[in-house]
């Protein structure tokens, strides 16, 4: 095996990788937990780099018509015959690979491990959506900007970075370009809308696509019914053995939504999504996101936003205002609608670092537990999704090493990771890593969420 630093042809390098994989020792029973995590991290990096290389090779094979010239079939057909996969899967893989071939900088960053394949795919979609509006120089600048943003943005965040990139590469025309882009997307979504039903035995299967505004509204309605049904089941003493899965709850919520639509207007908070307007129209987009009408970073044209909010209940709200009681002390455990609205305005959804669960799917957590004398007040509450509620909730009988939360001086929730995670993070980071030597803990906390 060649041990020098000279560059190898892709085929030779891949053959050596396969040879090394055949020599991996499967006996790992006595491996320390820290070592397991380090190996897992290395394996995922290798996976992303090999997947990126496979994508680049796929794009090059398609461009050169290698399959047609060699076996007389399209590349998608050749892939389907070489592997146990459908032609549909092969078409998807080839389509995904095209982005790596079309955007050289993105492909290079992915193959070198600077970005992962999910980030590369997100960058490709953003570039495809904004490229028609840019000249060659601006396209190159946009690609470079997105690769740079990938250093601190995940794939989901990158997919919503078009506005930021346009303001960077075309600052003068950014607003006009963004509005044009959103309008084109809305028109395309309207053209591509569909709904299909497929009878299957005793079930009815369906699939479809809705424009973003209508889709977000539909999703919010289902989520509201899902949470109402879940809380009703818990209060009725639902056993763990009978507890439905998340997908089953989604189906039950849709059934509940249909029942409500055929009978009468659902109870307040379920039939129509509510927009919490904090001060003025300029903040309407943020409050629409807080009410679950649209995603927090979802761009939307001015016309669609106005139409969406016309269909919603508008609730003027000012945190701390005299019209709503935001502190009910020890009189009751469950939050009032006024406190719930205030929590939605403040936290915008699950407040746990890195979590993007929407407010309608969250619970109001007492920071100082109710059973330990905690008050039902905004200063003692935080919105958490079901998973992170369990992570934060203190044990009545033991003092376990766990995540904790408190309200900071600015009135926002602040989270502290358990000691064991902070110790592991400190051991895992290189000595010269500025994050490891920071004193405020903010960067360390963010990194620990992924562990």
Describe this structure in words.
The protein is mostly helical and 451 residues long. It folds into three domains: 37-190, no CATH class; 210-316, no CATH class; 337-449, no CATH class. It is 52% helix and 9% strand. The protein is built from 19 helices and eight strands. It has helices spanning 10-22, 33-63, 66-71, 75-82, 87-102, 104-111, 117-130, 136-149, 155-159, 162-169, 174-191, 212-235, 246-263, 284-290, 302-310, 337-347, 386-392, 419-428, 442-449, and strands spanning 194-200, 203-209, 274-277, 313-316, 362-366, 381-385, 404-407, 413-416. A two-stranded antiparallel sheet has the order 1-2. Helix 4 crosses helix 5 (87-102) and helix 10 (162-169) runs antiparallel to helix 11. The chain is globular, with a radius of gyration of 26 Å. The chain starts with 9 loop residues before the first helix and ends with a helix. The model is unreliable at 266-271, 318-323 and 433-451 (pLDDT under 50).
Question: Can you lay out the helices and strands and say which pair or pack?
Answer:
Blueprint: H1 10-22, H2 33-63, H3 66-71, H4 75-82, H5 87-102, H6 104-111, H7 117-130, H8 136-149, H9 155-159, H10 162-169, H11 174-191, E1 194-200, E2 203-209, H12 212-235, H13 246-263, E3 274-277, H14 284-290, H15 302-310, E4 313-316, H16 337-347, E5 362-366, E6 381-385, H17 386-392, E7 404-407, E8 413-416, H18 419-428, H19 442-449
Parallel strand pairs: 3-4
Antiparallel strand pairs: 1-2, 5-6, 7-8
Helix pairs in contact: 2-5, 4-5, 5-6, 6-7, 7-8, 8-10, 10-11, 12-13
